[in-house]
Design goal:
The chain is an alpha/beta fold and about 280 residues long. Strand 6, helix 6 and strand 7 form a beta-alpha-beta unit. Helix 3 packs parallel to helix 4. The longest helix has 14 residues. The chain is globular and about 65 Å long. It starts with 6 loop residues before the first helix and ends in a 9-residue tail after the last strand.
C-alpha cells in the first residue's frame, strides 16, 4: 500500500489539535533502519529534527531480517529496508493479523568491490554466480550476514533461491569492506550507501548482454542506472509502517519520500523513487 500523503497535508489535518498529542512533526519515534541505508537515513533524521524541534527520533541500525521480524511481530512502528518482505515474512504478518503500510523510499545497487590494485574494473554478470558458488580458483568472495539485505538479494535475485555457499560470510557490511581492503584477490558485495569513500577500492562495472548489439555492456552502479533498472544488481528500498494513527512515523515518512528527502537520496548516490529527478552522468 503506497503512502502519498504530503507532510503539508498532514500538518493541516492536525492544526488546532491537543498540544500534548503526537502529530506528524511532534512526539517520539524509534526508526529501525537496514545497515545498508544507515548513512542516508541518519542524515535525513538530523535534517528533520533541525526543522521540527518538538520531534525526537532515535535511529537504530539492524539487519534487514531483524527489522522485518520487528515489524511482523508488532515490535516496531517503522522500518526502512533495502528489500521487500519475502514470502515467509508476509505469511508471518498474516498469521499475526498485522496490518502494515509500505512506501517506496529509493533505489540502490549492490556494489561488487575489490582492492584498489585489482588490475581490472570490469566483471561479467555470469562470473558473479561462479564466485558466490565457490567455483573460482582465483578469487575469495566475502558477503555480509545471512540476515542482511545483501545476502537475501544475492540468494533470491542472483542465485534463484540457492544459498551462496562458496562465499565467506562476515557479520556486517563494514567487515566486508575491511576484508576486501586488506586482502588480495578478494571480491566483496556491499550496499551502495555503505561505500562512503571508494578511494581504496575498485568498484566493478558489471557486464550484461546487449541483445541489440550482440555485445557485452559494462554498467557501473549509478543512480541513473538504478531508476531505469539497467544496473543488474538494482534493489528497491522500502519503508514499512505499523503506526495506527497519523503520527510522527507518518510525518517522517512523508519527509523521506518528499522533494527534500529525495534530494538527500540523490546526494547519497541513490536513485529517487517517488519524485521525478533528472539524473546527469
Amino acid at each position: 500500500m503506497r503512502i502519498i500523503v504530503s507532510l503539508l497535508l498532514l500538518l493541516s489535518l492536525f492544526s488546532g489539535c491537543d498540544e500534548s498529542r503526537e502529530t506528524p512533526v511532534k512526539g517520539s519515534l524509534t526508526v529501525y533502519v537496514d545497515e545498508g541505508l544507515e548513512n542516508v537515513v541518519k542524515a535525513l533524521a538530523d535534517s528533520f529534527l533541525a526543522t521540527y524541534k518538538n520531534a525526537e527520533i532515535s535511529v537504530q541500525v539492524v539487519k534487514a531480517r531483524e527489522g522485518a521480524v520487528k515489524i511482523v511481530n508488532g515490535e516496531a512502528e517503522m522500518f526502512i529496508s533495502t528489500r521487500e518482505f519475502n514470502d515467509e515474512e508476509i505469511n508471518a504478518a498474516r498469521a499475526n493479523k498485522l496490518e502494515y503500510k509500505k512506501a517506496k523510499f529509493c533505489y540502490d545497487g549492490v556494489y561488487v568491490i575489490g582492492r584498489f590494485d585489482a588490475g581490472t574494473d570490469t566483471i561479467s554478470y555470469s562470473s558473479l554466480k561462479n564466485f558466490l558458488g565457490g567455483r573460482s580458483k582465483t578469487y575469495r568472495t566475502v558477503i555480509p550476514s545471512v540476515n542482511s539485505g545483501v545476502y537475501e538479494f544475492l540468494k533470491t535475485g542472483l542465485l534463484g533461491g540457492t544459498d551462496p555457499a562458496g562465499a565467506e560470510v562476515k557479520a556486517t557490511e563494514s567487515e566486508v569492506l575491511t576484508a576486501v581492503k586488506s586482502g588480495k584477490n578478494v571480491i566483496g558485495f556491499v550496499s551502495a550507501n555503505v561505500m562512503q569513500d571508494s578511494s581504496e577500492y575498485t568498484i566493478y562495472k558489471i557486464g550484461v548482454q546487449d541483445s541489440l548489439r550482440n555485445t557485452i555492456q559494462y554498467l557501473e552502479p549509478h543512480p541513473g542506472y538504478y531508476v531505469q533498472d539497467l544496473y543488474p544488481l538494482t534493489r528497491l528500498c522500502v519503508i514499512y509502517l505499523t503506526e495506527i494513527n497519523i503520527g510522527l512515523a507518518s510525518g517522517f515518512t512523508s519527509y523521506l519520500t518528499g522533494n527534500l528527502g529525495q534530494k538527500f537520496v540523490l546526494d547519497n548516490k541513490l536513485g529517487p523513487a517517488t519524485v521525478p529527478v533528472k539524473v546527469v552522468r
